[in-house]
Amino acid sequence: MAEQADLHELYEEAVQNVEGEIEFLQDTFRELKGRDAVSFREDFCGTASASCEWVRSGAGRHAIGVDIDRKVLEWGRRNRIGRLPEADRPRVKLLNEDVMRVETGPVDIIAALNFSYWIFKTRDAMRDYFSRVRDSLHEGGVLFLDAYGGSEAFETQKEKTKCDGFTYVWHQAKYEPVTGRTVCHIDFRFPDGSKIKRAFSYDWRLWTLPELRELLEEAGFAKVRVYWEGEDEDGEGDGEFSEEATGEADPAWIAYVVGEK
């Protein structure tokens, strides 16, 4: 089964919920700005699924996806943009460029999701990225980031999640307390015993929310907010996010960090 599996399809099934993400971006922007956002830039876009969902959500909306990996962009062009109605496809533009060099013109929303921006490991590098993003937003534009944390984020461990037809394994392989560096992998396992080890690997700095808030403010964002995930009756994340000033000492949490220009 592993030999026939498509890594990008597995990844999106296991970890992404683009419908929920885009709904949160739309609703939060409308709540903050009193109008609907039209233009969207997805940094580190990968397969550009969020960009396609943005376009799918409204006839007047357009999206730009930016990623340095040409192969994954081509996959997204075939398998995500190619599934849009033909008339909608021109409203998604993919750029095979570095987010630190790309010039796209101003947009309403920029998003860097799935913790992708954690590739920047120093305060200077992260602040520079945030400054570039701020310059690429319309006046009143909004940056959306996601983040994870809690005591379990600092441990080496494996977490298994059963999905439809496979098991997703999140492997926190290394954490360095002095540098903040973390190395993580995604593995996939199948009912026939086959597996894909290290289908995706990440070498990040594990940033904290206070650090991210401070760096956004230093980069010139006028207001920075944190949206915390609620819990269901079993104490698990329910996918609903609300603004929070302090958060809770959960062993594992996910939040959005939202910067207003």
Q: Any key phrases for this structure?
A:
N-terminal domain of TfIIb, 6 helices, 2 domains, 261 residues
Q: If you compute it from the alpha carbons, what radius of gyration comes out, rounded to the nearest whole angstrom? A: 18 Å
Mean pLDDT metric: 97
What ranges have pLDDT less than 50 throughout 5 or more consecutive residues?
none
- Count up the domains: 2
Largest sheet: 8 strands, mixed
| Total number of strands | 12
Global morphology: globular
Range of strand content:
35-45%
Please state the oligomeric state of the protein chains shown. Answer: single chain
Give me the number of helical elements: 6
Q: Please estimate the helix content.
A: 25-40%
Looking at CATH, which topology of the largest domain would you report? Answer: Rossmann fold
CATH superfamily of the largest domain: Vaccinia Virus protein VP39
Q: Which structural class should the secondary elements be placed in?
A: alpha/beta
List the SSEs and their pairings:
Elements: H1 7-15, H2 18-33, E1 39-43, H3 49-56, E2 62-67, H4 70-79, E3 92-96, E4 107-112, H5 123-135, E5 137-149, E6 157-163, E7 166-175, E8 181-189, E9 195-205, H6 209-218, E10 223-231, E11 237-243, E12 253-260
Parallel strand pairs: 1-2, 1-4, 2-3, 4-5
Antiparallel strand pairs: 5-12, 6-7, 7-8, 8-9, 10-11, 10-12
Helix pairs in contact: 2-3, 5-6
